Structure formats: C-alpha cells, structure tokens
C-alpha cells in the first residue's frame, strides 16, 4: 500500500474525480478525510469504510473560513497528522465576461480559488511538520481557451499560477505543491450540465469531438494522476495535464 500511514484530505468527495480519488487513496492505505458541501456525499465515505478503508466525513463550504479550518482540524484530531491535501472542490458556471453575473463571478472565484487558499493556509503547519504535499485540481481550461467559460477558466488559471508560487514559497519547508489539469471527464457534474442544454446528446458528441483521443476521461484516470503527484517526490510546481491530448 503506497499511502499506508498517511492522512489525506480530499474536497468535493461526493462524486466524480473527488470520489474516485478518495476511494483510490483509501485502497492505497491512506486515512481519508472527505469533504463536500452536500450531506449525501457522506455515502462515499460510508462505502469506503464498508470496504475496509479508514475514512471520515466533514460537511462544509470550502470558501468559508471556519468550515475550511474545521476540515483541517478534523483530519488532525481524527488521525493525528496530515500529509496530503487534494483541493478538488469546484464549480463550473457558463458565461462570457459580458454576460456573467457579478454573483456567478464571485461564487466561482470563492469556491475555486479562495477555497484552496484557505485550506492550504490552515494545512500549512501540519504539512510542514510531515513534509507533505498539496495537489490542486485545475482544468485543461487553464491551458487552452474554452468558449463560454470565462470565470471558470480564470479561476483554474489562478490555480496553476498559485501552484507555482506555492511551490517556490514552500520548497525549503519540504512541502511539494503540484496541480493536475483534467480534460473533459465523464462525471455526474458533466451529465447534469449536459441535461440542461437543448440537445444533450449533440452537446456530449461535441465534447468528445474536441478530445484528440476521441473519448471523455474517466474519473479514475484523473485520480491516478493525483496519486502520482502525491507520491512523486521529485515533482513540485508541476502542472500535469491528463486531458486526452486536449491541450496539444
């Protein structure tokens, strides 16, 4: 087991990439703290426990100061240490700059950027103690322009820049900071967004068509990339694309 004796936090654990990452980390022996804003996401943690894994759940909005602090404190209080922080929680809202509402802009930046900032800030002393690692989950949108995704692209671009800054800031503390940029991934979140379009099947085909490999990614494939970054001791400041060639 590659993560035996390690404690990992995974935010946005209720489905998709977060769920796959939590399950994979638990399978590799980690004690997992799963966070989500939705109470029903605890079912993922319960399933991990049923499979013999070690896990606990913390509900909360990552953009809220006290909620973010509680996530970190729960990990340390429950398992005695913190080694890995996966900032996966995020939202996707459509729009160009001219038609994105102030509320949508602020909410996206709050969840996608403020959340990772807060969690990283509160995790810092514990990660320093254990020479731990942070993995931000950004998006291929940070690397290539996408139509109708202005604030989402801006927020994920901020994460890639933050990754580089933090990698430089914390290299002497032994904390590695990396970032993964998934391509379009076949998650419940994607299915929900497609269902709101006039022709979901046609839209799905368009998403597939823009992937050079001719298919959508699977959540477990992104989780495997996150596991790699958690283990790769000579990687910091790395922006890892797992995108089916979309950023070519």
Keyphrases for this structure?
248 residues; alpha/beta; Rossmann fold; 2 domains; 7 strands; globular
Could you explain the architecture of this structure?
- This protein is an alpha/beta fold and 248 residues long.
- It folds into two domains: 7-182 and 221-237, Rossmann fold (3-Layer(aba) Sandwich), CATH 3.40.50.720; 185-216.
- Helix content is 47%, strand content 15%.
- The protein contains eight helices and seven strands, in the order βαβαβαβαβαβαααβ.
- It has helices spanning 16-27, 42-50, 65-79, 102-130, 150-170, 188-195, 200-209, 219-231; strands at residues 7-11, 31-36, 54-59, 84-87, 133-137, 176-182, 239-242.
- A seven-stranded parallel β-sheet has the order 3-2-1-4-5-6-7, sandwiched between helices.
- The two termini are 34 Å apart.
- The mean pLDDT is 97.
């Amino acid at each position: 087991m590659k993560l035996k004796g390690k404690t990992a936090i995974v935010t946005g654990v209720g489905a998709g990439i977060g769920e796959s990452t939590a399950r994979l980390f638990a399978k590799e022996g980690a004690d997992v703290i799963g966070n989500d804003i939705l109470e029903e996401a605890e079912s993922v943690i319960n399933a991990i426990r049923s499979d013999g894994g070690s896990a606990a759940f913390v509900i909360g909005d990552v953009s809220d100061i006290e909620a973010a602090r509680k996530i970190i404190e729960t990990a340390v209080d429950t398992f005695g240490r913190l080694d890995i922080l996966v900032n996966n929680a995020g939202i996707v809202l459509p729009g160009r700059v001219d038609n994105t509402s102030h509320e949508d802009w602020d909410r996206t930046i709050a969840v996608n950027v403020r959340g990772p900032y807060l969690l990283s800030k509160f995790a810092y002393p514990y990660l320093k103690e254990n020479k731990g690692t942070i993995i931000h989950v950004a998006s291929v949108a940070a690397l290539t322009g996408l139509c109708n995704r202005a604030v989402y692209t801006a927020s994920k671009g901020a994460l890639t820049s933050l990754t580089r800054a933090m990698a430089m800031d914390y290299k002497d503390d032994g904390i590695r900071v990396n970032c993964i940029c998934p391509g379009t991934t076949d998650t419940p979140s994607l299915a929900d967004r497609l269902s709101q379009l006039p022709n979901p099947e046609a839209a799905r085909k368009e998403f597939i068509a823009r992937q050079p490999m001719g298919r959508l990614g699977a959540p477990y494939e992104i989780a495997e990339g996150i596991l790699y970054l958690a283990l790769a001791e000579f990687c910091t400041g790395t922006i890892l694309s797992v995108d089916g060639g979309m950023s070519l």
